[in-house]
Every structure is written in structure tokens, then in C-alpha cells.
């Protein structure tokens, strides 16, 4: 890193949970970096982060920080992205934004490389990284959509607390410890930081992620619904979601029901298809109790799929169970993958 | 209890988690008991259980134990029920069986009093208590079925470990403690006692409850599918289920999608209906973050329903979130309710 050739890369939110994973993933993938610039809020500026044996001082992110930057990975919250992503783009950087700030903006491609890599060509300076729970679902469903057509999705999620940030992880651990010791604990973070009410997550399940819309759905559920249609370029696709937070540190799981267009497709056909699908690892052997679980997916980049079976009433309906590390494929890895797509497709040129 | 008038009641499996709840519920409901007989396996026989201030020595359950018994509540495992329930019935007792041994037997009514109380009249000595996850779902859906017709159900469950017995509760606690302390822990109980493989439940989600069938569904899922049709007397009802075990001690949650027959029904219509439905408590006020959660339902007899909203694509489709104490409405309370129905409908007469 910081090599003679390569790209100038900025990471905004470098000290956060996802930012750290982004840096680690860039290193692990040996991404061609000429200069690495680590940025954060004023509060975290000055911290020293060691990358590949070299110390980097984290600087406060300002519009000028993006002069000469080729790719800027943003993961510092929606308000930071709204303010600084256009500034970075104005200065010639391509922003890969991990917040929800621009995802539904018609000018901004929303990209999961296994699904719609070519959409990076349409960027106008900003590319959005989808919501974590959306990404793993579309990776698992895109091969099905392409081969058999996709009509309807009904998903119920089982989401880890790390999606709500480092404070939520701390809350889960401290609260669990307190409950086991018979001590009181006052929740302050979950389900939504800054909301009026906070609830126990330890040994519980909270059917709220993000705030509620007037139609009774949460923003998280609407993200899954709207982002899926945008990524798959199909506004007629029917999508419904129920999003639930669990006492799991990392790894989102999803119970996915889907209906296809083709007739006569068997569960084995779906399994055969997903066995060789990009980014997917099939773990589906009920006889030997093989299926994906969040505890097994942590630190892995893949989307794990199992429990594939045909509905007993609808021969075009299928059920499956999809698990992935929400901080990697759900965030950092998908962002770095988009950066790799930009290089491979020649959208950014190495200097 | 042990009053001058009333019924002779036996509890089989009196020392187990559900058996204890059955006894407590009988006391709490002031059920008219003349004589209470506590029975168990040979292993637990001789234990002393105090009921309403009076000590009862638990006896080994044998065919002769049921002489003179009016109602026998069974919760000691399927093999005990298979062996002894017919013996009890032969001796004139009405068995209320909490195992899966007789649920799908055509001669045996499967009863949730809020739904099909009248079915107790058809008993031939044995009445079955449905699976815990089935009960709470049908209590929430029966008012909808009666008023608007019910066509299809797709449910994903979030089930507590207490459904797998006291050893599973112990495993969840010990394993959680070990993981927080950074110690190793070897799972021995979950997902299925006696299965080849056991998996970590702490900070995890296991998409297996009970064993697998050849069609890829688990027995637990098939129980929900088949029992729902039988209880609602509708074999044409489409039901699909995905059952998942969570690190929750008590309280099952369910993400339920359902399609009705009637047109023009709104989410508010469903809420109005469930507000006054028997056995249901509506907790549905998203603006104030009011929805059911397992941590809040423990020790309560009701079925809690919230997050009711209409599907965005199908105007006859709705989503809701259903939570109940799996040991109470899911087991002990429903069994005692059946006993109360037997009395109220005059199927058994007090002596």
C-alpha cells in the first residue's frame, strides 16, 4: 500500500466498525493503492491507525480532503455523506457510499457486483452500496431471477446488532452479562439510537430496525423492498419484508420465500444453480444437519444459502435460508468489490 | 385443591417444565379439583411437590394410576403418551395430551379453545394439545378467518429454547456465560436432543427445530402446517412455515404473512377485529414503538399481536408479528383451558 502505482483512496469513517473492515479488506485484496487517506469526524481525527505496518494519522474529513482522490469509500453516517460525497465527486473522486443517503437517488447507481456490476458505468460521481440485508438476499436470488424469472419475495430477517454499530455490540454484551448475573441494565442504544424508547435485546427479539413509516413498515423494511427492485431493475417485482433484531453480534440471517415465473422447477434445480453462483456458498444437506448459521459466517465474504425447499402448495414457490456477515458482504466487502469493478471495467485508470 | 367436590385430576410429567406450569395454572385458575394425582417416570417418582401448601408425593405413572381419574393432563414425552394415554382413556379418564403423539390422529380432536372448542365433544378419550408455535398463530388468525376468510399463511418463527426443555435453557445460559468469558463450551442439547450434531445457540440462530423430513421441511414446520389446517377445519388452507431457534429463554415470536378472501379490508380493520378477539392482546402502536416482544410476554397467558400492516403489492395480503409464552398458551395454559372447556360444556361432570 502507498505504492508507486495505483489509485489514491480515501476511507471516510476510518475509525468505525465498517471503516476498519474496509481498510482490512483493501489490504487483504491487495487493492492497487498509491496513497491511502484515512478520514473521520473532527472527534476521531488525530487517531493513529496502522495499515500494513505503516502508521496513518486520521484526518478530519473536509471538502479539500478529496483533492487528488480517485476513490472515496464513505461509511460515516448519512449526514456526513450528504455533505461531503458531492464535494468529493466535484473534485473528481468516485464516491462509494455505504449509507442510505443516495441509494434511491435516480442519478446514483446502487450496486451489488454479482447482480448489476455494469451499472457502475452510469455513475455521476457517486455509487451507492445497498443496505446489508438487501445485499445478501439479492446475491442469493439473482441467479434464480436470471434463469427462472422472479415474481415475488417475502422475507423475514434475523439481524445482528453490529448493524446498529459498535455501541449496540457493547450493549448486547453488557446487558447479557447483567441479566445472567441478575443485575439491572438500562438499554440506551437499541432498537434505534436516539429513539424515544430503548428495549432489552439480550435474550429477546425486537421487531423494529430503523424508524417507522406511516404505512407501518420500518425504513429498514422499505430499504429491502425498494433497493431490491432498483438493483434487479424490476419495478414490477413484488417484495415484502419484516425486519427483526436479534441477540446476535454479527451475521444476518433471512427466511426467504420467493415465487418464480418458470414451471416445473424443483428444489434440486435451485440448489444446482446456487452451487456455482458467484458469491454464494451452498450449505444444504438436511440429512447431515448442514445449513448456514450466523455463528459460522463471521469473517467470511460469501453469502451462505441452505434449507432450499419447494412450497407444499405452490409449485412455483420456494423457501430458503440466507446468512452472511453483515459487516463484510453487507458493507465493507461489497464496497471494496465495487472499487474492484471500477478498476476492472476501466472506469478509473491507474496512474 | 383436593376439595369435597370437583374432579379427580392427574398430571403426568409433573416434575417437568410444562408439568409444573400445568399445576400452577390449575391452582391459579382455581380449577375444581377433588383429588390431584401427580405422576412421572420411575426416575422422578418419590419427589415431593408442594401444591397450594399441601405436599404431594409424585408417583410412577402406570396404567392403574388412572383408575378413578376424570381428567389426565399428559406432558411427559411422546412415548409415555403413546403407552399410557390409551390406558388412561380405557379407565374412563379424558386425556389432554401435550405431546405430538396423537395430534394428527383422525379420531383425536386437536383443540385450541378460542378456535375450535366445540371439537372436544368428539373426543374418544384423548384430546390433543397442539404444538406451541401453532397455537399462538391460530389464536391470532381465527378471528380473521371467520370474518374475512383465510387463503394462505407464510410464517417464519423465532422460537425460544424452553420449547426444547429444561436442559436447553441450561445450555443457553451456560453457553452464553462461557462465550462472554472467552471459554470453550461444547453444545450437547440443541438443536435436537439425541441428534448427531449439536450447535451453539448463544448469539446464534439455528434454522432447525425437530428432525428433517424428506421434503426438506422439519417436523416442527410440518406440525405448524398440518395442525393449522386440522384446527381450522380447512384442508384447502395454504400454510408454509420456517422454524428457527433463537437465544431466547421463553416466548415464541412469529412473522406471519397471510392472505384473506375478502376485498377492501384495511390494516385498521384487522386491528379493530383483533382488539376484541378472545385470548388476544393487541400491542400495535408503531409511532410509540409499541409492539410485542418475547421478553415482555413471559408469565402471561395471552397471545400478543402487533406490527399489523397491509402488503404493498397484494391488497388481500397482510403482515403481523405474534408473540406468546410458549410454556403457557403454547402448552400448560391451553391444556388447562381444554379442561375448563370440558367442564363448561358439560363433557365431564363434577362429582
Automatic annotation (TrEMBL), chains A, B:
Q: Which residues are substrate-binding?
A: 159, 245
- E.C. number(s) listed in UniProt: 1.2.1.11
| Any single GO BP term | diaminopimelate biosynthetic process
Domain Semialdehyde dehydrogenase NAD-binding: from-to ranges: 8-123
**Domain of life assignment:** Bacteria
Record note on quaternary structure: Homodimer.
Q: What does this protein do?
A: Catalyzes the NADPH-dependent formation of L-aspartate-semialdehyde (L-ASA) by the reductive dephosphorylation of L-aspartyl-4-phosphate.
The protein depicted here goes by the name: Aspartate-semialdehyde dehydrogenase
Q: State the organism named in the record.
A: Neobacillus piezotolerans
